[in-house]
Amino acid sequence: MAISYTILERKNYLSNNQNNHYFLKIVQNDVVNIDQLSKEIEKETSLSEVDVHAVLIALQGKIMKHLEEGNVVNLENLGKFSIAAKTIAHENKEDVSVKDVQKFGINFMPSLKIKRWLKKDFKLKKSDNK
């Protein structure tokens, strides 16, 4: 199956030349939820859909627990998750405080297996939507 794309037009605010530029943008299709993943994994393993669903929910909780403890979570064939923080910068080290944290996020670094997979030639097709 091919990945859909569309062509977008945007202004280039970084250039002195204010001409619009065009670029290819990947179109996201459906959202695959935990129920669908559980059904698909059930068909490929000896686990029931309910068992897979329970494991995925437990995995989510364990990832959150370990990230909150400051650990990197390495799901070896998938990648590494780590917690990140968006903070306010200061000129002086003494001015830095935990109050400078504006929000937390998660960094994801794909595994070597996924990085290699991303280098393949994906089939692309122009979206019918635009």
From TrEMBL:
Keywords from the named record: DNA-binding
Q: Which Pfam families match?
A: HU-HIG
InterPro entries according to UniProt? HU-HIG (IPR041607), HU_DNA-bd_put (IPR005902), IHF-like_DNA-bd_dom_sf (IPR010992)
- Entry annotated with the keyword DNA-binding: yes
GO-annotated molecular function = DNA binding
HU domain spans which residues? 1-125
Descriptive protein name: DNA-binding protein
Q: Which organism is it from?
A: Paenimyroides tangerinum
